[in-house]
Design goal:
single chain, 750 residues, alpha+beta, Penicillin binding protein transpeptidase fold, Beta-lactamase, 5-stranded antiparallel sheet, 25 strands
Length: 750
């Protein structure tokens, strides 16, 4: 026998052994599947959550069933709804008997060459089995069980029954199971009313509800929707005109919020991420989830906010110590335009971090144009030269845009990304300084960013869950603190200190009556077509807690916009205040920020600031001309002002008016003046005067002899340096002297 034939025979034997082993394994799994996992019609239609969620005290929270409540008949849906799912998930749905062998072979080859299970080949039937009968483990045993049950399901039910059941139980994210629930959750109407565009969005969601969420990732959602539409066009189930019309629509959702159950949804999503399981597996495996929620605090705040009717809102409270969420109301995950709340994060904190500005640096609030962009302040008024501190505390727009330009857009965005913010490629313009981005940020993201300021620049992901146990009590997860220093502590302190001024004299002054140390920033997003607002924000914090509040309109219905009087400084700040008033019933909140060693309070010369220079006050600088503020020790001014090292020599003028002698000079309010009179017989002080910034005058009777006048000038602060002015002389006129002489002779003789 030739060597080649021997090799071929060995290969055939090995292949035969592999096939025998594979078939044997397959038959064993099938036999076990028949005993342990059987096709169950009840499981096809619904299942109930068995997860238990506990608050911070260990008391169980009320949870609701996460699926199986809302169903719809296939015949009630527009024809393109089912076709959108078939085009993207299972083109051969009506031609196979549960398994698509060609797709399985193709996926197997791709996975073999890629080295891992990159390509899936599940049919709609298999997906239905996986989601109702099996767990989400990616094992060969589960895939064999899935295939076996899929074949069995196809033998017992029609394609229409399978498709209808599939659409009624598949998961669409945001705790929406089934297409009716999904339509109402995302679009606020029944699945019967789904448009082609909306159907394609939902069909694209099921591959990865988090990744393709129209709420959290609208850009990826649009890409996935467009792929669904493209497949439908190629499959000739829609026309070119239908395709073009749907393709040109923007991603638009009309979220309905179940306030009472929204926190549970957030917890389930967090548990899914931690355990790397599907929501179904988390919900049905009896996990016990222990959270940081203060239930009593939550209920009190919810009761207070419920008094504000028919306005969407969200609230989140973070315990800064471990970055845990102790209260969560509404949907704080929705991305919205953030308005001025972005200014500290994107503009001023990077400026302090990189030394572009200090709190006292002069910046001009003026009418200005950057290319074709002309920012304006809210009241269309400009204040001229002001400090950076004032610009942020009063939330002025023009200085914020200037600061972003000083920093550089990319540099500022990179800084903000370290605090959890995200940007699209289109977000590359100066209007970012005012919060104008493609999709905005969520309240959850913004509140977490501000919590990093409260922690001296330490950032971490929010912690919703303290601990997770199995149904038998085995701990499978326990939260650990994991903070990263994303900015220097001096940068954080400078922002915190300035945002205290926002409460004293800025847009968040309604919080001032709380009489506790707080920093805060508000934001308002108005409309271009009328005097209403779409979003109102207020985020406040101290070392202990960070409270974020948002009000707005996600429906896209102009009639649901906020009134002009409902803005960040009013409705959002009022609710923020309510939260702090409730917090003080449970915690000590009267805690202030400590000045770090990397921050110094320095005296700055006010006259230099008027000339747009930051210079230290000298020992001669009068108190009136000293401004104190905080500086990072990394970027402290070093030059001392020379404004007060020399005394400005006054120029004395002498005039005669109405038989009086008038002495005048230009005064300065940090100097004092000693007016001296000198004649042939004596020299005396006529007057000692504190200077003022004006023309100073002294009026005296005309002297009877030749007299000299001059001024001795010194600092008011007691410095011994003095300067003598010019000397002005008054001479008695000649005729006056002769009259005086004759008068004396007359007196002598008569």
């Amino acid at each position: 026998m030739s060597k080649i034939l021997k090799i071929m025979l060995i290969i055939l034997c090995i292949f035969a052994v592999i096939v025998i082993i594979a078939v044997t394994y397959f038959l064993i799994v099938i036999a076990q599947t028949g005993e342990s996992v059987s096709l169950n019609i009840a499981k096809l239609n619904s299942y109930n959550s068995q997860v238990k969620i506990y608050d911070n005290s260990g008391d169980e929270l009320v949870t609701t069933s996460i699926t199986g409540n809302k169903t719809i008949n296939l015949s009630e849906l527009p024809d393109y709804v089912s076709k959108s799912f078939i085009s993207i998930e299972d083109k051969q749905f009506y031609n196979h008997h549960g398994l698509n062998y060609g797709r399985i072979f193709k996926a197997g080859i791709k996975n073999l060459f890629s080295g891992y299970a990159k390509e899936g080949a599940s049919t709609i039937t298999q997906q239905l089995i996986k989601n109702t009968h099996l767990n989400s483990e990616k094992t060969l045993t589960r895939k064999i069980q899935e295939a076996y049950l899929a074949l069995k399901l196809e033998r017992n039910y029609s394609k229409e029954e399978i498709l209808e059941t599939y659409l009624n139980v598949i998961y669409f994210g945001n705790s929406a199971y089934g297409i009716e629930s999904a339509a109402q959750t995302y679009f606020n109407h029944s699945a019967k009313e789904l448009t082609l565009d909306e159907s394609a969005i939902l069909a694209g969601l099921i591959k990865s509800p988090k990744t393709y969420s129209p709420i959290l990732n609208p850009e990826k959602c649009k890409e996935r929707r467009d792929l669904v539409l493209k497949n439908m066009l190629e499959d000739e189930v829609i026309t070119k005109s239908e395709y073009d019309e749907a393709l040109n629509k923007e991603i638009s959702v009309n979220i309905t919020i179940d306030r009472n159950n929204n926190y549970n949804k957030v917890i389930l999503e967090e548990a899914m991420r931690i355990l790397n399981l599907s929501e179904k597996d988390v919900s049905t495996n009896g996990y016990k989830i222990y959270t940081y929620l203060n239930k009593n605090l939550q209920n009190e705040i919810a009761a207070s906010l419920s008094e504000i009717k028919n306005i969407e809102n969200a609230l989140i409270i973070v315990d800064n110590l471990n970055n845990s969420v102790i209260s969560y109301l509404g949907n704080a995950e929705i991305k919205r335009q953030v308005g001025s709340t972005i200014k500290p994060i994107l503009c001023y904190a990077p400026a302090f971090e990189y030394g572009t500005l200090s709190p006292i640096t002069p910046i001009c609030d003026e009418e200005i144009t950057f290319g074709d962009y002309s920012p304006h302040n809210a009241n269309d008024k400009f204040l001229g030269w002001i400090s950076t501190r004032t610009a942020l505390a009063k939330s002025l727009n023009v200085p914020a845009v200037k600061t972003l330009e000083y920093n550089g857009i990319d540099k500022s965005k990179n800084f903000a990304k370290k605090l959890g913010l995200s940007f699209e490629k289109e977000d590359n313009h100066l209007a970012l300084a005012l919060g104008a981005s493609k999709y905005g940020q969520s309240l959850q993201t913004m509140t977490n960013a501000y919590a990093s300021f409260a922690r001296d620049g330490l950032y971490s992901n929010l912690n919703f869950i303290k601990k997770i146990e199995t149904s038998t009590g085995t701990t499978v997860y326990e939260a650990k603190q994991n903070f990263n220093q994303v900015m220097r502590e001096d940068t954080a302190f400078l922002i915190n200190d300035i945002l205290k001024d926002s409460i004293k004299q800025g847009t968040a002054k309604r919080l001032s009556t709380l009489n506790i140390p707080l920093s805060a920033k508000t934001g308002t997003v108005g409309t271009s077509y009328d005097n209403t607002n779409t979003d109102a924000w207020c985020i406040s914090y101290n070392p202990k807690f960070t409270v974020g509040v948002w009000y707005g309109n996600t429906a896209g219905d102009k009639s649901k916009n906020l009134k002009s009087s409902q803005n960040g400084g009013t409705i959002a700040t009022n609710s923020n205040k309510i939260a702090w008033n409730r917090l003080k019933n449970y915690y000590n909140i009267n805690i202030d920020f400590e000045v770090p060693q990397t921050v110094k309070k320095l005296k700055v010369d006010a006259l230099s600031l008027e000339n747009q220079k930051v210079e230290l006050a000298s020992e001669n600088t009068p108190e009136k001309y000293i401004i104190t503020d905080y500086f990072s020790t990394k970027f402290m001014p070093k030059k001392e002002s020379n404004n007060f090292t020399k005394i400005t020599e006054p120029v004395l003028k002498l005039t005669v008016k109405d038989n009086n002698l008038v002495l005048s000079w230009e005064g300065l309010d940090y100097l004092k003046y000693k007016v001296i009179e000198k004649n042939d017989t004596n020299e005396n002080v006529l007057s000692e005067i504190d200077g003022e910034n004006k023309n100073m005058t002294i009026s005296i009777k005309l002297p009877t002899q030749n007299t000299e006048y001059y001024i001795i000038t010194s600092f008011k602060n007691g410095n011994e340096n003095t300067v003598k002015s010019n000397v002005e002389k008054y001479y008695i006129p000649k005729e006056e002297k002769e009259k005086s002489s004759m008068k004396n002779i007359f007196k002598h003789w008569f």
